Amino acid sequence: MEQKTFGIGVVGLGVMGRNLALNIERNGFPLVVYNRDTTKMRHLVEGEGAGKNILGVETLEALVGNLERPRRIILMVSAGAAVDAIINQLMPLLSPGDILIDGGNSYFADTDRRAEQLMLNEIRYIGMGVSGGEEGALWGPSLMPGGQREAWESLAAVLRKVAAKAEDGAPCVAYIGPRGAGHYVKMVHNGIEYADMQLIAEIYDLLRRGLGLSNSELAEVFAEWNQGELRSYLVEITADILRKKDAETGKDMVDVILDEAEQKGTGKWTSQNALDLGAPVPTIHAALEGRILSSFKVRRVEASKHLRGPSNRYQGSREKLIASARDALFASKILAYAQGLELMRIASEAYQYDLQLGEIAGIWRAGCIIRASLLGDIMLAYRRRADLPNLLFDEVFREAIETRQSAMRTVLETSVQLGIPMLAVGASVAYLDSYRSAWLPANLIQAQRDYFGAHTYKRVDKQGVFHTDWT
Ligand code: NAP
């Protein structure tokens, strides 16, 4: 009988699947690849994949037939109906013990459902968050696999090689938890990414409109910040973006791009899920609101002619405002990460995912879009105390926030005075102030609820549920 030499199959050779396939092969694992539109498969095996250990096939039968058992098939297709369609086509071809790995941005509840359904047929299912974009997929992404632990174990050797490596050499992959845990964590990663991007954009706005810095001056500011505690992929690419010229017009690229932010949904899922779980993530909500407001371009242009505000130009010390902006960005970023991490802590209990937050921070240190030197410190905070309720209870982070909060307040105050919107920085400051308030004005809300709807309230001085006849 012919020996099957292919250990991995990849279905879906779009931007991500094709690069992940090349990455897997480069790391010493021969693979079989399939794409619904066969031209993409040919393009890969006759182009960059030529002469490599990649077998292109035109049918799923051929893909399955060429794989050694248990078969390990990575799906890199669009999230949603495409994943169900491919699973349905593969099901009759698979045998008990085979492993399907969904590497797309699937909604975690879909992965929970698929994992349970496939288990009935003894097919093992891994929902794997993949972050790092096109380049990450090729050279080393951060991988967040969830599903049956023994299925992860039979993939671990491959995934550890394919994943990015952190500065200490650790591979940026770890078993996340059962069922949809991997996709859940990838979703929250993207929610934090939205917050990170909005915070950077707001600070860019303050320095651009408030101080009148040119794009090349801004690029220098961000490049310098990237040498310090703000070192991160997003700050690094911001500096690069601000230097880029448009080939067509010769203008700065960033100035020819329309100011309407789009979204694919993972940030919104994070917000919606946090609302469902009752977890506070105001900076992530604000980042979404920022994108939504940006999409009101026509209305904004119209309103800008009617609604006047203060002059945008700052009159104080330029150096001092730049220094405050740096500290405000760092503190707001910590607060956004604190929110995302606490959301995962709450979800871990609600869904019994048993998430190891320190380990998750560890695998986000390289390969993924939110990679940042801050994540190494977050990992250490959870090593100091694995059941940390919120990052703000860690001594190092408490101090980091305390020493920067006046800068954060100055920046927010300045933006309000100049009429420059800071949804996410504002949400971070309010989150901090709410979180550290032993008392909040919710007593009044409870009174109002009881007044108009007899919703009852609790008292500070005795147990029980009470109602007052207010009129
Ligand atoms: P893409 O370039 O648009 O490719 C989509 C792939 O899905 C193609 O191979 C397409 O096949 C296949 N597909 C779509 N519908 C299908 C169906 N009904 N049946 C079979 N195949 C179908 O997308 P991508 O950027 O590679 O993304 C793939 C997944 O990774 C998505 O879930 C995405 O959210 C996730 N992801 C993307 C990034 C990123 O930076 N791009 C990062 C992390 C995760 P055809 O060629 O035949 O249409």
Summarize the structure.
The protein is α/β, with parallel strands linked by helices. It has 3 domains: 8-179, Rossmann fold (3-Layer(aba) Sandwich), CATH 3.40.50.720; 186-435, N-(1-d-carboxylethyl)-l-norvaline Dehydrogenase, domain 2 (Orthogonal Bundle), CATH 1.10.1040; 441-471, 6-Phosphogluconate Dehydrogenase, domain 3 (Single alpha-helices involved in coiled-coils or other helix-helix interfaces, Up-down Bundle), CATH 1.20.5.320.
**Mean of all residue-level pLDDT scores:** 97
- Rg over alpha carbons: 25 Å
Shape: globular
Q: What would CATH call the architecture of the largest domain?
A: Orthogonal Bundle
- The count of β-strands is 7
Succession of helices and strands: EHEHEHEHEHEHEHHHHHHHHHHHHHHH
- Helix- and strand-based class? alpha/beta
* Number of distinct helices: 21
Q: Please give the CATH class of the largest domain.
A: Mainly Alpha
Ligand inventory = NADP nicotinamide-adenine-dinucleotide phosphate
* Largest beta-sheet details: 7 strands, mixed
